[in-house]
Structures are given as structure tokens and as C-alpha cells.
Amino acid sequence: MVEIRVEDSKIDKKKKRKTSVLVIGIFENEHDFTQLNEIDPFLSTTVEEIINNKEFKGLLGSNIILYTVGNGPIKKVMLIGLGRREKFTNETARIIAGKAALKAKEMGLADLSLIPFSNKLDEGLIEAIAEGILLSLYSFNRYKTNNEENGSPKPNEVTILANSESSKYQPLIDKVNLIAQAVYFARDLGNLPPNECSPAHLANFATSLGNEYQMKTRIIERYEMESIRLAGVVAVGKGSNNPPKVIILEYSGAPDEQKPYLLIGKAVTFDTGGISLKPGDKMDEMKFDKCGGCTVLGILKAISSLKLSLNIVAIIPCVENMPSAASYRPGDIIQMYNGKTVEVLNTDAEGRIILADAIAYGINSYHPKAIIDLATLTGACIIALGSNVAAAIGTSKELIYRLTSISQETGEKIWELPLYDEFHDQLRSTVADIKNIGGRPGGAITAAAFLSNFTCDVPWVHLDIAGTA
Question: Which CATH superfamily groups domain 178-464?
């Protein structure tokens, strides 16, 4: 992973520190080169002339590379557009820093230096820049035997040139680095192909994570699921030769008397749709139906690395949804862990069935303070909000508000969808308590309405990450 450090804003021969490329952000229609002038007055004059001649306008994300002459400490300069100043946010900084890192990677540069994109330097801006650099340089090349990237350098060292006391920012960079490692971990798991990430494989990854951070780990096997009435998980998973697993990890960072937060992650390691078979087009992407569970494992890695003062219980129901003579069928009726009966109308609406069992089991076993579940649950969510926004639906307005507020700071977009009583009406069954689909209208919401039947009175929020995963 790339090393990021924060130093003062001096690049000079005396310190014998050079840079392959210096990244300078330029706001649209502005000509402020104070910071650049402090580093190199001649270079400042050159950039000013380019801007005045409108050879570079500072449009958001645009860039131009300038080559320097002589043996100076700066080999190249990358001007990158920041867009209009009034629209600039930490999320803009995050995106622009990522674009700069990717451009440096494209040029085969081993290092880069960057002047922060605002005179008002603060922790939020430094954090955003570091996140943009680290997360943009992620790649998944595990299965490439002739990987072209291995033959060319990519940035492994980034220096952020602060114009203030730089030492106070380094601990923040270290924290961002731990979070990025957790994100990489989750992305690696999500990208694994189904033949190398069955429920058993994912359980092994979780067990290794638990051992690394001294978390209590438990894997519930199918025979035990049957005895403790986790019939929903059993039903969905029984069509595959790869048996279902329920993964439980407990992180204890606070006193035992503090109730835990319950995190539930859907992990369908591959989803054919079962008997209600999906179309063949893009079915390969159904390896990503495990991303809710992978995200929960990444969250636990981050929390453990940061040693947060929380108690967390993570439950990941893990299955492979396959068509076979043993598969559950449309028309089946399942009695779930909490006793409610579910009429199956579509076996491709399997995620809500395994999540419901996990939620009910978690409430009964751990008496949580609040519940957050993450799941690639519905294509309807993508139709409603697109691929870059997750839906938040739940029973706790306070928890939804906290999540959506944090999402604005992190750039991980979340939007609340309403859970009105009418959506529950769509799930009424004539032969069971509820059915597992409510029709096309409001499909993302009726999926959440289904889950709400299993949450009791515990504050709960469901995050549908079908698009964002």
C-alpha cells in the first residue's frame, strides 16, 4: 500500500528531496498562486501565463502536465482542475486526489507530491486527500498471470505539502491507512470468484480475521441450523453442494454491560436465482451478492484496528443459491426462526429470507442496542437511486439521521426511503403470515418491510447496497 506522509511546503535542493510530479489544484477562473510562488517563483510565473492564456481553465477533474527543465527538485508539474470554489468540499478533494494518483499511475511514476487544495488546511481535508489517494489505487490482480501493471511502477510514496505544523496530521494519516486496509480487505473478498469463495471459504476468512484480532468466532453449520430453527438459511442454501454457514464474530471494546450493536451482512456467495433462475446475461456479477457480508467483515477489521470503544456482534448468513433437485421452490412455506411463516413466491428473493433469520436470531441471542444490516438486496434500489446511492430504510429515525449525516462527510451517499404501512399490505399472503415478494411497485421498500417483521422493537436500519457494491 502506498505510503503517505505530511511535510512542510518546501521542496528544495538543500533538503535533497525531489519529486517526480508536483500536483497543484487550480480553481476555475481563479489566479491565486501564493503557495506555488513560495516553492518556485519561476514555475509560478509559467503557470500564471498558462492560466491567463486560457490553456488550462481549472474545470473539475481536468489536468495538464508541465515538464520542467534543468536539475531542479521538481521533474513535472500536474495542474488539476478543482472546479468552482463555492462548490468545493472535502468530497471534491477526495475525488481530485484520487484522479491525481491515477494519472501518476498512468504515467508510471513511483512518487508524487501534492499541495492541499485549500488555504484552510484542516484535519477533514487532509483525511479526504489521503482517502482519495489510497482508495483510488486499489486494484484486484490476483488471478492475472501476465499482469502488465507488475512491469511498470505506480505511486508508492505520496507527500502532502502542508503549510502548517505537519506532525499533527501524521496520526490522522495512520488512521486513514488502517481504514483503507479494511476497505481493501472487503474489496478483495467481494472480488473473489465463486469457485474460490464458497460459504466455507468465507467462513475461513472470517475465522482468520477473528483470530488475528482476538474476536470470539462461531460458525453455525447446517445441522445445527436445523436444530435451532434457522429454517430460512437452510431453505435457501440446501440447493447447493456447498453447505450454508452462519458466521458470528464478537468484538468487545467496551465493558460487558454495554449492549452491542448488531451488524448483519448478506453473503450469497453466488446467486443464480435458484428455481426462479436469473437471465444468463451478467450472471457472473452475482459473485458480488456477498458484498454485504464482505463489508461487515471489513467494518470489523477497521473497528478492531482502530481499537474503538464499542461492543459489536456481526452475523453473516452465508449461502450459495443454486437450482437443483434439493432447492427450495416457489410455493414452499417456511417457518422462520421467530415463528413467522413465509410463503415463497420467488426463490430469487432469497437475501431477505436469510437476513430475516439472522436478525431474529441476533436479537434473541444478543439483545442488541441497535441493528444495521447491509445487503445487495434489490435491483429496484438501483432503479430508484442509481448505482452510486445506497437506500436507508428502517424503524429508527435517529439512526437513519446519524447514518445519512455521516454519509455526507464520507462521500458514501445514502438516501432514506419511506417505510409506510401500505408497503406491508403488499406482503400479505393468503396461506401464510407473509410472502417473500410484494410485486414490482416499491420493490426496495417492500423488501425492507419484509425484514421489519423480524426486528421486534429494536432500532433498526437496512442499507440496500445493490448499486454501490
Answer: Zn peptidases (3.40.630.10)
| CATH architecture entry for 3-162 | 3-Layer(aba) Sandwich (3.40)
- Residue range(s) of every CATH 3.40.220.10 domain in the chain: 3-162
pLDDT (tens digit per residue) in 126-182: 999 999 999 999 999 999 988 666 556 789 999 998 876 778 898 999 999 999 999
pLDDT value of residue 218 = 98
| pTM of the complete model | 0.95
Of the listed 76, 278, 340, 413, which one is catalytic? Answer: 278
pLDDT at 122: 87
Q: What percent of the chain has pLDDT over 90?
A: 83
352 is catalytic: yes
Low-confidence stretches of the chain (pLDDT beneath 70): 9-17, 32-36, 38-39, 147-152, 164
Would you state the pLDDT for residue 148?
Answer: 63
Domain with CATH 3.40.630.10 in the chain: 178-464
What is the 3-state secondary structure of the chain?
CCEEEEEECCCCCCCCCCECCEEEEECCCCCCCHHHHHHCHHHHHHHHHHHHCCCCCCCCCCEEEEECCCCCCECEEEEEECCCHHHCCHHHHHHHHHHHHHHHHHCCCCEEEECCCCCCCCHHHHHHHHHHHHHHCCCCCCCCCCCHHHHCCCCCEEEEEECCCCHHHHHHHHHHHHHHHHHHHHHHHHHCCHHHCCHHHHHHHHHHHHHHCCCEEEEECHHHHHHHCCHHHHHHHCCCCCCCEEEEEEEECCCCCCCCEEEEECEEEEECCCCCCCCCCCHHHHHHHHHHHHHHHHHHHHHHHHCCCCEEEEEEEEEEECCCCCCCCCCCEEECCCCCEEECCCCCCCHHHHHHHHHHHHHHHHCCCEEEEEECCCHHHHHHHCCCCEEEEECCHHHHHHHHHHHHHHCCCEEECCCCHHHHHCCECCCCCEECCCCCCCHHHHHHHHHHCCCCCCCEEEEECCCCC
User: For residue 47, what pLDDT is reported?
Assistant: 83
Examine the residue annotation and report whether 218 is marked as an active-site residue of this protein.
no
